[in-house]
Write a structure and sequence with these properties.
This protein has about 450 residues and is of the alpha/beta class. The chain has 13 helices and 16 strands. It has a seven-stranded mixed sheet with strand order 4-10-9-8-7-5-6, with helices on both faces. Strands 11, 12, 13, 15 and 16 form a five-stranded antiparallel sheet that branches. The chain has a four-stranded mixed sheet with strand order 1-2-3-14.
């Protein structure tokens, strides 16, 4: 692997020592982690102080949609810092207004008002608050196999084990099963069955919870960390119809799936649905400066026309973050990044991953679109037993750890969650880079194959 800077192990050791002395890392047992000291990044790659370069198949945390250090976005941040580095959110600021306009132009339907936050979790928090105030109801429904953030309401909405330590059981959240044919909770044999049965289950849940108590249904349009399960045809349209029938606010979480990740500006475009509220973050400015938000329908915005909205953040619509968003959206438009993500998914990533599945018994299913893919790794293709148990840790997670180590040895930084690896590179990854990643996955999957029956 060719480094982009001269190796400097001593500097790397100093960075790591300072990290270990003072940085408290998220989602981690602090004494059991060994963070890689990163020396730099560019495009689809990053590198360490020892001279190792990695193709980033995680795009940060699925947010560097235009890659690292895009010169136009870096320059926009620099220019904005020199002109107006910060300003309070109660004022009209040109770059904030322009970011909101560009986002509203791309959201579906009449989601034309933009409330800015610092990230995705705060976006979900505020979307739920808006829904509760708009309806006068308290309960919110969300799916198992989901992730919506780590703040108070968002973590209660989350449907994976990260919720468990912080779940008070009193936040008015009810979980339900969303469709997932490969591991169907409804014993379905076709996508049509899965969609119909999942919709019936959702409506039954609403009826037994009391429709008049339900403010909102919150769904990731395509679940991200939980497994990139693309919804079956008709499901999201069915949820929209159920929400309309019971007066429930439909919230789509596009924090991960939005801004080109799926080969569309927003994943909702693939399914022809318009929610009442849509949350976004991550790819809105490729993660260069923290930014998120809620796109709001005309009806819900009207609720707060004469009635103050009781929420806000000191850094809402921060000028540096908005400048990065404006530049990122213009780069995506000019360089046709959304179209490229669709093309690379259809012609390279999708076919390449499916070809790997044909040759590796550890691959149970390939699913995704655009630059948003998952491999479901299994011990046994017939029974679909996962390669590691649900929420495995320690020795039980060893097969996935071995697979991850093999990826890194071959110059690929993988996205691994439970028994899955996700292929979620920058949306503007080149065909050659994508094929390089597929080759590294091919080699690493031979290690996963060793754990199959």
């Amino acid at each position: 692997m060719t480094p982009h800077v001269e190796p400097d192990p001593q500097a790397g050791a100093a960075v790591k020592a300072a990290d270990r002395a003072h940085v408290f890392h998220s989602w981690s047992a602090q004494g059991l982690i060994d963070p890689l000291a990163v020396a730099g990044a560019g495009g689809s790659y990053f590198w360490d102080y020892d001279g190792n370069r990695y193709l980033d198949f995680t795009s940060g945390l699925v947010y560097t949609n235009i890659g690292y250090q895009h010169p136009r976005v870096v320059e926009a941040i620099r220019e904005q810092a020199g002109r107006l580095a910060t300003f309070a959110p109660a004022f009209a600021v040109d770059v904030r207004s322009e970011a909101a306009r560009l986002i509203a132009e791309r959201t579906p339907g009449d989601l034309d008002k933009i409330f800015f936050t610092n990230g995705g979790a705060e976006a979900v928090e505020n979307a739920v608050r808006m829904a509760r105030l708009h309806t006068g109801r308290a309960k919110v429904l969300s799916a198992y196999r989901s992730y919506h953030g780590a703040t108070s309401t968002a973590i209660n909405l989350t449907g994976d084990p990260r919720r468990w330590p912080s779940d008070t059981g009193s936040a008015g959240v009810v979980h339900f099963w969303a469709p997932f044919l490969y591991r169907s909770p409804f014993y379905s044999s076709t996508q049509a069955e899965e969609s119909a049965r999942a919709l019936q289950h959702l409506e039954d849940t609403i009826v037994f919870e009391g429709p008049q108590t339900v403010a909102a249904i919150v769904l990731e349009t395509i679940p991200g960390t939980a497994g990139i399960m693309t919804p079956p045809p008709g499901y999201l349209a069915g949820v929209r119809e159920i929400c309309d029938r019971y007066g429930i606010v439909f919230v789509l979480d596009e924090v991960m799936a939005g801004f080109g990740r799926t080969g569309a500006w927003f994943a909702a475009e693939h399914y022809g649905v318009v929610p009442d509220l849509m949350t976004f973050a991550k790819g809105v400015n490729s993660g260069y400066v923290p930014l998120g938000g809620v796109a709001i329908s005309a009806e819900i915005a009207a609720t707060f026309e004469k009635r103050p909205y009781p929420g806000g953040l000191t850094y809402s619509g921060h000028p540096l973050a908005c400048a990065a968003a404006v530049a990122t959206i213009r780069v995506m438009e000019d360089e046709k990044v959304v179209e490229h993500a669709a093309h690379i998914g259809e012609t390279v990533l999708g076919p390449g991953l499916r070809e790997l599945a044909e040759r590796h018994p550890s691959v149970g299913e390939v699913r995704g679109l655009g630059a948003f893919w998952a491999l479901d790794l299994v011990r046994d293709r017939e029974t679909r037993e996962p390669l590691v148990p649900y929420n495995a840790s320690g020795e039980a997670a060893a097969p996935m750890a071995a697979f991850g180590a093999a990826c890194k040895k071959n110059g690929l930084w993988p996205f691994i969650n439970m028994n899955r690896t996700h292929a979620v590179p920058a949306c503007n990854i080149t065909e050659a880079e994508a094929k390089e990643g597929l080759a590294a996955l091919d080699a690493a999957l031979t290690v996963a194959d060793e754990y199959t029956v």
